[in-house]
Amino acid sequence: MRIKEKRMKSFAIRANVLLLDKKHTEAAKAVSDGLQYYSHNVIKAISPYAAADAGMIVVVLRHLADEMESKNVGAKEFAEWLDKHTKESPFTEMQIEKIRTCETVRSTEEKGCAIRNSQWADRIRERFMKKE
Question: Sign of the C-alpha dihedral, residues 56, 90, 27, 30?
Answer without folding.
Answer: positive
